[in-house]
Amino acid sequence: MTFNKWFAGLISAAVSGGATTAVAVFAVPDLLYAPGGWQKLGIMFAGGAAIGVLNYLKQSPLVDVQK
């Protein structure tokens, strides 16, 4: 696997993990209108992205770029 493919997979994992926030907005729209709603959504996006990235790194560890 090349570094470009690995990095694209890493970004894809972050986006798909963070996309759970969009589902949360549809499921619980009151989050947007609560005080600090946008901050909560940002934290949810970051948490989902972190989980997606960590799962991707578990599946595909860092690539040796010297090959």
Q: What's the layout of helices and strands?
A:
Elements: H1 3-18, H2 20-27, H3 30-33, H4 37-59
Helix pairs in contact: 1-4
Describe it.
The protein has one domain (3-59). Helices cover 76% and strands 0% of the residues. By secondary structure, the protein is mainly alpha-helical. The protein has helices spanning 3-18, 20-27, 30-33, 37-59. The chain is built from 4 helices and no strands. The chain is elongated. α1 (3-18) packs antiparallel against α4. The longest helix is centred in the C-terminal third of the chain and has 23 residues, at 37-59.
Summarize the structure.
This protein has 67 residues and is mainly α. It has helices at residues 3-18, 20-27, 30-33, 37-59.
Which regions contain 5 or more consecutive residues with pLDDT less than 50?
Answer: none
Instruction: List the secondary-structure elements in sequence, H or E.
Output: HHHH
Which structural category fits the helices and strands?
mainly alpha
User: How many structural units, i.e. domains?
Assistant: 1
Instruction: Kindly estimate the percentage of residues that lie in beta strands according to DSSP.
Output: under 5%
Rg, Cα atoms, Å: 15 Å
* β-strand number: 0
Number of helices: 4
Average pLDDT across residues?
82
- Straight-line N-to-C gap: 10 Å
- Helical percent range? over 70%
User: What's the overall geometry?
Assistant: elongated
Profile the largest sheet: none
